[in-house]
Amino acid sequence: MIDLDFASSDVGETEDFLVRAYTKMTIASSSPDAHTTISRRWLGSLSYDELSFTYDMSYDADPLGRIILCRVRDGHINENFIGEPADVFAPGDLTLYSPPELPYSGQVCRATYDLTGFDPDLFNRVAAADGSARPEPVRLTGHRPVSVQAAHRLSSFIDYLRDFVLSDEHARTSPLVVSTASTHLAAATLAAFPNNAVTDPTAVDRRDAGSPVLLRRAISFIDDHAHVDLSVHDIAHQVYVSPRTLQLMFRRHLNCTPMSYLRTVRLHRAHEDLVRADPMSDSVASIAARWGFPHASRFAGYYRAAYGRSPQQTLRG
Questions:
Q1: Nearest CA to 195 among 51, 96, 274?
Q2: Considering only CA atoms, which of 79, 101, 80, 105 is closest in space to residue 90?
Q3: pTM for this model (two decimals)
Q4: What residues form DSSP beta bridges with 37?
Q5: Least confident residue range of 40-49, 128-137, 138-147, 233-242
Q6: What fold, for 262-316?
Q7: pLDDT tens, 221-274?
Q8: Which of 92, 126, 160, 164 has its CA 20 to 30 A from that of 184?
Q9: How many CA atoms lie within 13 A of 73 on its CB side?
């Protein structure tokens, strides 16, 4: 994926760019001051865009095919939803721009905002489904977060991606960082917005969660595959339980989640690499990113809590 930077005061040129970058659409404006700036940064298949329009612009667009989260900083956006009342996105709002399968239209009114996009299939990967065939894919059922707190948590994670992952070349090129960021973003979005995913454990979940044999299999799988992209669904699939059962199993026996156990394993692998590393050619940042830790100070905090010293001290021997 190639990062994008665009600036123009020509509405026709802007429309051509929007069609290439998003989806087929038409835009219109009568403003003589029609300056547009757009930047896009990629993290694997995740996209983070910052957009600014100095004018009022109407748009009529085909489906985006992606989950697009919108955060307005200045101005506002009037959005028309099929089968729902129109809505206004104002500064401070975090919303779903449009359902990925539906066309959309509206008006950008001298707005500055950012868009975070990802594939809707990520929901199926991270949702706590029961492991059986679902009548329909996991999807969002509303375009506003379920609470102010939920919106704040998701917005904080998007800030984290922007400030600490997209700005760090080691992080952006680490497969584990990319996969972890992707699954966390999808999970945070499901936690923030109404959706059709099933989350309550069943009697079967509770019964299977008591099996130490299944737990040992899950631990063994994590230990053997900590170097690759793993989600809760991947681990559960390998031991033939539902993601809900897996979560309950780790809570009951280890007082942690499967993903926090995976983080502990990866932290240990990073420790081993630091012990073996050459301080003249290796760095803490590159080793941390290799094992899925893009945030240097957060990695240092985890490391010091586990090993009683800083990762830099271990690297220096």
A1: 96
A2: 79
A3: 0.76
A4: 7, 52
A5: 128-137
A6: Arc Repressor Mutant, subunit A (1.10.10)
A7: 999 999 998 888 889 888 888 777 888 889 888 988 898 999 999 999 999 999
A8: 92
A9: 9
Alpha carbon distance, N-terminus to C-terminus of the chain: 39
CATH architecture of 4-119: Sandwich (2.60)
Quick one: which of 138, 168, 118 has its CA closest to 1?
A: 118
For the chain, helix (H) and strand (E) counts, in that order, are 13, 9
- Tell whether the model's pLDDT for residue 135 goes beyond 60: no
Which is more confidently placed, 133 or 309? Answer: 309
The total of other beta-carbon atoms located within 10 Å of residue 2's CB is 5
Instruction: Dig out the tokens for 145 from the structure.
Output: 């977060």
- Where are the chain's structural domains? 4-119, 262-316
Question: Residue 163's beta-bridge partner residues?
Answer: none
Q: Which residue has the tokens 């990967």?
A: 125
- Measure CA 266 to chain center: 20
Hey, what amino acid is at 113?
Y
Q: Which amino acid, residue 175?
A: P
Other Cβ atoms less than 10 A from the Cβ of 147: the count is 10
In the numeric block, which tokens belong to residue 45? Answer: 């298949």
